[in-house]
């Protein structure tokens, strides 16, 4: 084929492709004929490439020698390649982009040449990368072309394309290449405001304003009194970043000279499951990028991830692969206090150097807040000691059961307690709290908790233990009363005694939720206790959940209480899950409901039959 013939064929192909685009826009409900025609044009494009290569190879060489002939061939091939009216990418054997034509740059929304030197599989949907690499290898080894459908994502755009791979030999290249022709069958454009900042001055100003707004929000959050008095700076800051800036946020802090994973915030729509736990349990010392940032004291940004192993590994392989990561940045927290890592999915706009600059400032602010928080906490050690006396540091192993709990302190010294402890017949548990605040209420709760522990060693009936604790509390004359529930475990049966406490919830294997009777009169009101007694059977796969007044009385911005109905709805969605997942789900739902505000202590204790 001569060059005029090739140019004429390219012009004709460009006209037909333009007509197909118009047909796709005009008849979106009838795409089948358009797709069939597009596939036919795809075959035509591949044939034209092959004929162009053959024509170049047969072209007469100049007398100047082989080198001049090769240069002329390369120049002609580049001209043909850039004029090609469909998206074409030239890949080497490893899948790295070596050439990209303007049609491809327009399709993907990236500047000309931006993707050269980057790994093309990073643009492919995570679930289909392995299949793409297999097709690429097969084409290189057998020389047989391959065509298949896949999804590409870049710069906030998502494309479903028909991808055709053809092996080719390029002049001056020692290895064989693969030409990838991509015809989009479905395109999802980025949402308004998701354009690259470089596209317009207005978008650039909008992005700068968003970064400034983040700094203001972060400063206000970290300077709140509660943030300084309680260990909530890190969780609150990471939740803010996850809500507005990233899909995953990971904070690793130096504790006792050792770097430990402290906070992991997953995407909002991501289920609480194995992947979240694997990210939480991964050793940050195994992360190349985290250790680099900690050692050098400066942040890094990976606009496109060429190495999925940078954040370490989990049971399913590289963490970043499992997380569906497309870009990542890491910045130091304070001065050697830790590392903050943000990850965005491959179908979102990647992080930029401007994002890195604002996150460097966020990391500095967060480090100052953590140090100030430590200073404030050291001045209230007596209050911390009282709070620690109403909750165990760890939960013991109860034969036949798996246990988990969560405790969030309120705005002042707390009075809620929970415990799991040995009794004469096996194991017991309790949850409750004095009605009141401050050190006196905390000391009364600690006394009740201790009384239940001590008396449980001699008594096998939780109701008898509750009655004796009531006598002791009345005799002390504190004038305070305590709402509490206690249970003793015997095989699959649990005997409950309630003194004015909220009823326990039993989550069954099929998702149904049944509440215990609850009730009774709080301890300390009268010399003769009035309790409510009940026996429950907790089968394998069922979970018994006890909770504090602070959970169901939490309110949203309209003043509505969280309530037991919402509690039951959340529990129903946790059927078959571990106790730790159950308490985290309740904690996360309550946080979302109340906008993160915590007035009274939040205590949740879950026991699951295993």
Strand order of the largest sheet: 2-1-5-4-3
Which radius of gyration do the C-alpha atoms yield? 32 Å
Oligomer: single chain
> What structural class results from the helix and strand content?
alpha+beta
Percentage of residues assigned to helices: 40-55%
Low-confidence stretches: 192-199, 382-386
Strand tally, please? Answer: 22
If helices are DSSP runs of H or I spanning 4 or more residues, what is the number of helices?
18
Summarize the biggest pleated sheet: 5 strands, antiparallel
Average pLDDT figure: 82
β-strand percent reads 15-25%
Between the first and last Cα atoms, what is the distance in angstroms? 74 Å
Shape: elongated
Any overview of this molecule?
The protein is α+β, with helices and mostly antiparallel strands and 610 residues long. It is built from 18 helices and 22 strands. It has helices at residues 3-26, 32-58, 66-83, 102-108, 129-142, 201-222, 225-229, 233-244, 274-281, 288-296, 319-322, 353-378, 381-388, 438-456, 462-476, 549-552, 563-572, 579-594, and strands at 88-91, 97-100, 146-154, 157-168, 177-188, 248-255, 258-265, 300-302, 313-314, 317-318, 325-333, 338-345, 401-408, 416-423, 426-434, 482-490, 493-499, 505-507, 513-515, 532-537, 543-547, 602-609. The strands form five sheets. Strands 2-1-5-4-3 form a five-stranded antiparallel sheet, with helices on both faces. Strand 16 (482-490) and strand 17 (493-499) form a beta hairpin. The termini are far apart. Keywords: Hydrolase. InterPro entries: Bact_Sigma-Reg (IPR052016), GAF (IPR003018), GAF-like_dom_sf (IPR029016), PAS (IPR000014), PAS-like_dom_sf (IPR035965), PAS_4 (IPR013656), PPM-type-like_dom_sf (IPR036457), PPM-type_phosphatase-like_dom (IPR001932). This is PAS domain S-box-containing protein. Residues 73-143 form the PAS domain.
């Amino acid at each position: 084929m001569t060059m005029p013939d090739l140019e004429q064929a390219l012009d004709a192909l460009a006209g037909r492709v333009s007509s197909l685009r118009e047909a796709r826009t005009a008849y979106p409900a009838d795409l089948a004929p358009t797709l069939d025609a597009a596939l036919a044009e795809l075959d035509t494009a591949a044939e034209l490439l092959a004929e162009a290569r053959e024509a170049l190879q047969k072209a007469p060489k100049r007398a100047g020698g082989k080198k001049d002939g090769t240069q002329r061939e390369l120049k002609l091939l580049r001209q043909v390649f850039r004029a090609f009216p469909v998206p074409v990418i030239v890949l080497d054997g490893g899948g790295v982009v070596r050439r990209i034509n303007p049609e491809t740059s327009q399709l993907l929304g990236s500047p000309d040449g931006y993707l050269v030197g980057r790994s093309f599989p990073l643009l492919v949907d995570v679930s289909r990368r392995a299949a793409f690499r297999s097709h690429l290898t097969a084409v290189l080894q057998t020389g047989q072309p391959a065509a298949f459908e896949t999804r590409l994502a870049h710069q906030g755009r998502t494309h479903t394309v028909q991808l055709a791979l053809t092996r080719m030999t390029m002049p001056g290249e020692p290895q064989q290449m693969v030409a990838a022709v991509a015809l989009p069958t479905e395109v999802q454009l980025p949402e308004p405001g998701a354009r690259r900042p470089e596209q317009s001055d207005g978008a650039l100003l909008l992005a700068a304003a968003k970064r400034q707004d983040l700094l203001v929000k972060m400063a206000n959050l970290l300077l709140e009194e509660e943030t300084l008095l309680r260990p909530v700076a890190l969780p609150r800051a990471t939740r803010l970043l996850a809500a507005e800036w990233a899909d995953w946020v990971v904070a690793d802090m130096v504790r006792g000279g050792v770097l430990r994973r402290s906070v992991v915030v997953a995407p909002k729509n991501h289920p609480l499951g194995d992947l979240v736990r694997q990210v939480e349990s991964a050793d940050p010392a195994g992360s190349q990028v985290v250790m680099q940032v900690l050692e050098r004291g400066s942040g890094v940004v990976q606009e496109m991830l060429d190495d999925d192993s940078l954040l370490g590994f989990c049971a399913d392989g590289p963490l970043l692969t499992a997380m569906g990561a497309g870009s990542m940045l890491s910045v130091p927290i304070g001065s050697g206090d830790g590392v903050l890592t943000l990850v965005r999915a491959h179908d979102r706009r990647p992080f930029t150097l401007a994002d890195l600059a604002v996150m460097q400032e966020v990391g500095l602010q967060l480090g100052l807040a953590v140090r100030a928080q430590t200073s404030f906490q050291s001045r209230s050690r007596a209050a911390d000691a009282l709070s620690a006396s109403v909750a165990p540091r760890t939960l013991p192993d109860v034969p036949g059961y798996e246990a988990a709990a969560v405790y969030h302190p309120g705005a002042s010294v707390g009075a809620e307690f929970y415990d799991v402890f040995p009794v004469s017949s096996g194991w017991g548990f309790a949850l409750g709290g004095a009605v009141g605040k401050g050190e006196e209420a905390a000391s009364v709760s600690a006394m009740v908790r201790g009384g239940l522990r001590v008396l449980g060693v001699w008594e096998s009936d939780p109701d008898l233990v509750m009655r004796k604790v009531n006598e002791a509390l009345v005799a002390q004359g504190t004038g305070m009363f305590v709402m509490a529930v206690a249970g003793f475990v015997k095989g699959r049966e649990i005997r409950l005694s309630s003194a004015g406490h909220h009823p326990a919830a039993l989550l069954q294997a099929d998702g149904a939720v049944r509440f215990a009777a609850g009730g009774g009169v709080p301890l300390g009101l009268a010399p003769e206790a009035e309790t409510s007694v009940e026996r429950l059977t907790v089968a394998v796969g069922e979970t018994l959940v006890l909770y504090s007044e602070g959970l169901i009385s939490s309110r949203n911005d309209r003043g509505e209480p969280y309530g037991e109905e919402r509690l039951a709805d959340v529990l129903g969605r946790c059927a078959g899950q571990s106790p730790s997942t159950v308490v985290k789900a309740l904690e996360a739902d309550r946080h979302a409901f109340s906008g993160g505000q915590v007035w009274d202590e939040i205590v949740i204790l879950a026991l699951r039959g295993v």
